[in-house]
Amino acid sequence: MRPRAPMPPIVVRFRRFTSLNTTIRLRDGKVLVSLSDLLEGAPETVIHAIAHILLAKLYGKPVDPRQNLRFKRFASSAAVTRQTELIRHARGSKRYSGPEGRYYHLEEVFDSLNMRFFGGLLGRPELTWSEQLAKRSLGHYDAAHNTIVVSRVFDRPSSPRYAIEYLLYHEMLHLKHPVKMRGLRRCVHSQEFKAEEARFPQLAAALAFIKRL
Ligand SMILES: [Zn+2]
Questions:
Q1: Residue (of 154, 166, 104, 160) closest to 130 by Cα position
Q2: 174 C-alpha vs ligand 1 centroid, how far in Å?
Q3: Do 123 and 38 share a structural domain?
Protein backbone atom coordinates (compact mmCIF):
# COMPACT_ATOMS: atom_id res chain seq x y z
CA MET A 1 0.00 0.00 0.00
CA ARG A 2 2.85 2.36 0.68
CA PRO A 3 5.87 0.56 -0.73
CA ARG A 4 8.39 3.35 -0.10
CA ALA A 5 7.36 4.12 3.47
CA PRO A 6 9.60 2.61 6.15
CA MET A 7 8.07 -0.22 8.15
CA PRO A 8 6.79 1.25 11.40
CA PRO A 9 6.94 -0.71 14.66
CA ILE A 10 3.70 -2.64 15.05
CA VAL A 11 2.11 -3.60 18.35
CA VAL A 12 -0.74 -6.11 18.21
CA ARG A 13 -2.85 -6.86 21.23
CA PHE A 14 -5.49 -9.57 21.50
CA ARG A 15 -8.21 -8.76 23.98
CA ARG A 16 -10.48 -11.14 25.78
CA PHE A 17 -14.26 -10.86 25.95
CA THR A 18 -14.66 -8.04 23.52
CA SER A 19 -16.75 -7.88 20.42
CA LEU A 20 -15.08 -8.66 17.11
CA ASN A 21 -14.35 -5.01 16.58
CA THR A 22 -10.77 -4.31 15.63
CA THR A 23 -9.02 -1.00 15.93
CA ILE A 24 -5.89 0.39 14.36
CA ARG A 25 -4.17 3.61 15.34
CA LEU A 26 -0.96 5.39 14.57
CA ARG A 27 0.65 6.87 17.66
CA ASP A 28 4.18 8.20 18.07
CA GLY A 29 5.13 6.50 14.82
CA LYS A 30 3.88 3.14 16.09
CA VAL A 31 0.99 1.20 14.64
CA LEU A 32 -1.22 -0.01 17.47
CA VAL A 33 -3.66 -2.80 16.63
CA SER A 34 -6.27 -4.19 18.96
CA LEU A 35 -8.01 -7.43 18.03
CA SER A 36 -10.47 -9.79 19.61
CA ASP A 37 -8.81 -12.93 20.96
CA LEU A 38 -11.19 -14.88 18.73
CA LEU A 39 -9.04 -13.82 15.79
CA GLU A 40 -5.89 -15.17 17.40
CA GLY A 41 -6.55 -18.67 16.12
CA ALA A 42 -7.85 -17.56 12.74
CA PRO A 43 -6.39 -19.16 9.60
CA GLU A 44 -3.48 -17.43 7.90
CA THR A 45 -5.68 -16.20 5.06
CA VAL A 46 -8.06 -14.52 7.48
CA ILE A 47 -5.19 -12.89 9.38
CA HIS A 48 -3.90 -11.65 6.04
CA ALA A 49 -7.34 -10.23 5.21
CA ILE A 50 -7.50 -8.44 8.57
CA ALA A 51 -4.06 -6.94 8.06
CA HIS A 52 -5.08 -5.77 4.62
CA ILE A 53 -8.33 -4.19 5.85
CA LEU A 54 -6.72 -2.46 8.81
CA LEU A 55 -3.82 -1.05 6.82
CA ALA A 56 -6.17 0.14 4.08
CA LYS A 57 -8.18 1.89 6.77
CA LEU A 58 -5.08 3.44 8.31
CA TYR A 59 -3.73 4.76 5.03
CA GLY A 60 -7.10 5.68 3.53
CA LYS A 61 -6.77 3.21 0.65
CA PRO A 62 -9.63 1.19 -0.90
CA VAL A 63 -10.34 -2.19 0.67
CA ASP A 64 -10.11 -5.19 -1.63
CA PRO A 65 -13.67 -6.64 -1.62
CA ARG A 66 -12.32 -10.22 -1.66
CA GLN A 67 -10.37 -9.59 1.53
CA ASN A 68 -13.44 -8.00 3.04
CA LEU A 69 -15.57 -11.01 2.16
CA ARG A 70 -12.98 -13.42 3.56
CA PHE A 71 -12.95 -11.57 6.87
CA LYS A 72 -16.76 -11.22 7.03
CA ARG A 73 -17.25 -14.95 6.50
CA PHE A 74 -14.93 -15.81 9.31
CA ALA A 75 -16.31 -13.10 11.59
CA SER A 76 -19.92 -14.19 11.30
CA SER A 77 -19.15 -17.68 12.59
CA ALA A 78 -16.79 -16.32 15.24
CA ALA A 79 -19.45 -13.86 16.38
CA VAL A 80 -21.71 -16.73 17.38
CA THR A 81 -18.94 -18.27 19.43
CA ARG A 82 -18.22 -14.94 21.07
CA GLN A 83 -21.87 -14.36 21.96
CA THR A 84 -22.02 -17.71 23.71
CA GLU A 85 -18.79 -16.96 25.56
CA LEU A 86 -19.97 -13.53 26.64
CA ILE A 87 -23.14 -14.98 28.12
CA ARG A 88 -21.21 -17.69 29.94
CA HIS A 89 -18.71 -15.13 31.21
CA ALA A 90 -21.48 -12.84 32.47
CA ARG A 91 -23.04 -15.76 34.30
CA GLY A 92 -19.74 -16.90 35.71
CA SER A 93 -18.96 -13.54 37.18
CA LYS A 94 -22.47 -12.93 38.44
CA ARG A 95 -22.11 -11.49 41.90
CA TYR A 96 -24.38 -12.81 44.57
CA SER A 97 -24.90 -11.14 47.87
CA GLY A 98 -25.04 -14.23 50.05
CA PRO A 99 -27.65 -15.94 52.23
CA GLU A 100 -27.60 -13.51 55.10
CA GLY A 101 -30.22 -10.83 54.72
CA ARG A 102 -31.17 -8.06 57.09
CA TYR A 103 -34.16 -9.91 58.49
CA TYR A 104 -33.95 -13.44 57.21
CA HIS A 105 -31.11 -15.89 56.83
CA LEU A 106 -31.83 -18.15 53.87
CA GLU A 107 -29.70 -21.03 55.13
CA GLU A 108 -31.65 -21.08 58.37
CA VAL A 109 -34.96 -21.06 56.48
CA PHE A 110 -33.70 -23.76 54.12
CA ASP A 111 -32.54 -26.03 56.95
CA SER A 112 -35.85 -25.78 58.79
CA LEU A 113 -37.81 -26.55 55.59
CA ASN A 114 -35.47 -29.41 54.85
CA MET A 115 -36.26 -30.95 58.23
CA ARG A 116 -40.00 -30.32 58.01
CA PHE A 117 -40.66 -31.48 54.46
CA PHE A 118 -37.72 -33.48 53.20
CA GLY A 119 -36.52 -35.37 56.26
CA GLY A 120 -33.32 -33.33 56.09
CA LEU A 121 -32.29 -35.25 52.97
CA LEU A 122 -31.95 -32.42 50.48
CA GLY A 123 -28.40 -31.29 49.82
CA ARG A 124 -28.13 -27.59 50.43
CA PRO A 125 -27.20 -25.63 47.31
CA GLU A 126 -25.81 -22.09 47.39
CA LEU A 127 -28.46 -19.74 48.67
CA THR A 128 -28.48 -16.04 48.06
CA TRP A 129 -30.56 -12.95 48.13
CA SER A 130 -30.71 -11.20 44.76
CA GLU A 131 -28.59 -8.10 44.29
CA GLN A 132 -31.53 -5.98 43.25
CA LEU A 133 -35.10 -5.69 44.44
CA ALA A 134 -36.24 -7.94 41.61
CA LYS A 135 -40.01 -8.12 41.20
CA ARG A 136 -40.07 -10.05 37.94
CA SER A 137 -38.18 -13.03 39.27
CA LEU A 138 -39.04 -13.62 42.91
CA GLY A 139 -37.14 -16.83 43.17
CA HIS A 140 -35.30 -19.14 40.84
CA TYR A 141 -32.95 -22.06 40.83
CA ASP A 142 -29.82 -21.50 38.79
CA ALA A 143 -28.80 -25.04 37.87
CA ALA A 144 -25.53 -23.92 36.26
CA HIS A 145 -24.33 -22.61 39.62
CA ASN A 146 -26.43 -24.84 41.86
CA THR A 147 -27.79 -21.71 43.46
CA ILE A 148 -31.22 -20.67 44.66
CA VAL A 149 -31.72 -16.95 44.30
CA VAL A 150 -34.50 -15.24 46.25
CA SER A 151 -35.54 -11.68 45.49
CA ARG A 152 -34.46 -9.18 48.09
CA VAL A 153 -38.00 -7.72 48.16
CA PHE A 154 -38.79 -10.48 50.66
CA ASP A 155 -36.08 -9.46 53.08
CA ARG A 156 -38.12 -6.95 55.05
CA PRO A 157 -40.10 -7.08 58.28
CA SER A 158 -43.42 -6.65 56.43
CA SER A 159 -42.69 -9.87 54.57
CA PRO A 160 -44.21 -12.84 56.41
CA ARG A 161 -41.89 -15.77 56.99
CA TYR A 162 -44.31 -18.14 55.26
CA ALA A 163 -43.92 -16.18 52.00
CA ILE A 164 -40.14 -16.71 51.98
CA GLU A 165 -40.65 -20.27 53.09
CA TYR A 166 -43.02 -20.88 50.22
CA LEU A 167 -40.62 -19.41 47.64
CA LEU A 168 -37.76 -21.48 48.95
CA TYR A 169 -39.93 -24.56 49.25
CA HIS A 170 -40.96 -24.20 45.60
CA GLU A 171 -37.31 -23.97 44.52
CA MET A 172 -36.42 -26.91 46.75
CA LEU A 173 -39.03 -28.95 44.92
CA HIS A 174 -37.21 -28.08 41.72
CA LEU A 175 -34.11 -29.65 43.25
CA LYS A 176 -36.07 -32.74 44.13
CA HIS A 177 -37.96 -32.99 40.82
CA PRO A 178 -35.62 -32.34 37.90
CA VAL A 179 -37.20 -31.17 34.65
CA LYS A 180 -38.81 -34.05 32.80
CA MET A 181 -39.25 -34.38 29.09
CA ARG A 182 -42.74 -35.24 27.91
CA GLY A 183 -42.08 -35.97 24.26
CA LEU A 184 -40.47 -32.76 23.05
CA ARG A 185 -41.88 -30.61 25.82
CA ARG A 186 -40.09 -29.74 29.01
CA CYS A 187 -42.28 -30.45 31.98
CA VAL A 188 -41.09 -28.11 34.74
CA HIS A 189 -43.98 -28.43 37.18
CA SER A 190 -45.04 -32.05 36.93
CA GLN A 191 -48.08 -33.64 38.59
CA GLU A 192 -45.91 -34.92 41.44
CA PHE A 193 -44.34 -31.49 41.81
CA LYS A 194 -47.72 -29.79 42.10
CA ALA A 195 -49.09 -32.40 44.49
CA GLU A 196 -46.12 -31.92 46.77
CA GLU A 197 -46.34 -28.14 46.55
CA ALA A 198 -49.98 -28.34 47.68
CA ARG A 199 -48.75 -29.81 50.97
CA PHE A 200 -47.34 -26.46 52.02
CA PRO A 201 -49.69 -25.37 54.85
CA GLN A 202 -49.89 -21.64 54.11
CA LEU A 203 -49.91 -22.03 50.32
CA ALA A 204 -53.01 -19.86 49.77
CA ALA A 205 -51.82 -17.11 52.10
CA ALA A 206 -48.36 -17.12 50.50
CA LEU A 207 -49.75 -16.89 46.98
CA ALA A 208 -52.08 -14.06 48.05
CA PHE A 209 -49.14 -12.16 49.57
CA ILE A 210 -47.08 -12.60 46.40
CA LYS A 211 -49.99 -11.42 44.29
CA ARG A 212 -50.34 -8.27 46.43
CA LEU A 213 -46.62 -7.69 46.15
ZN1 LIG B 1 -41.09 -23.36 39.41
A1: 154
A2: 7
A3: no
Q: Which residues contact 84 (CB under 8 A, 6 or more apart)?
A: none
- The neighbour count for residue 166, using CB atoms within 10 Å, is 25
**Burial class of residue 154, CB neighbours in 10 A (0-12, 13-18, 19+):** buried
Q: How many domains does the chain have?
A: 2
Give the structural domain span for 80. 10-92
Q: Ligand 1 centre and the CA of 102: distance in Å?
A: 25
* pLDDT higher than threshold 80 for residue 30: yes
129 shares a domain with 67: no
pLDDT in tens, 2-19: 888 888 899 998 887 666
Distance CA 158, CA 129 (A): 17
User: What residue type is 72 in one-letter code?
Assistant: K
* pTM for the full predicted model: 0.55
**Ligand 1 center to residue 197 CA distance, Å?**
10
CB atoms within 10 A of CB 111: 15
Tens of pLDDT along 155-194?
998 999 999 999 999 999 988 887 776 666 667 788 899 9
